[in-house]
Amino acid sequence: MSLSKNKFLAIFFGLFLFSSLAFAQRPIYSDSTSFKDRLYFGGNFGMQFGTVTLIDVSPLAGVMITDKYSAGIGITYQYFDDRRFIGGSSSTYGGRLFNRYNVLPNIFLHAEYESINFENYNLASERFERIWVNGLFLGGGYFAPFGGGRGGANFTFLYNVLHDNLRSPYGEPYVIRVGFVL
Question: Does residue 15 sit in helix, strand or coil?
């Protein structure tokens, strides 16, 4: 398996299997709710150690604009190292903007624009080069609350409509995220 395929697989598994995405379910009862009370924070954090090491740190901040609509920003940093190859380490970084609309109390639609910088293998020049790639993720999900507080779990299913197999850090255009809010 080539180094580029290993990178794609590690990034794919790191993003989707070893990370969690946190969103808040904060009810907005009136327009008088303060901005501070409508803010929420969360993000991804994932680690994999061994022959292939992956560390993902992706915080986000959002604001409940209405009781059904929220928007926010996030940043991403990932470190990847594959000890099977000399020079098999790299960093991926970037940012994202997202929107979320609750169709039903526990069902939501999600849209996210992401710009990621990573080392991509160029087949024409037969070498790795650092490039920026944009993604537009559309989909939805389910929020499962637990306890009497604001905590719960999110199950999000997204599709990257801008996916390009030759210029993407993701192995597939489909994204599945499982996250928690405490």
Answer: helix
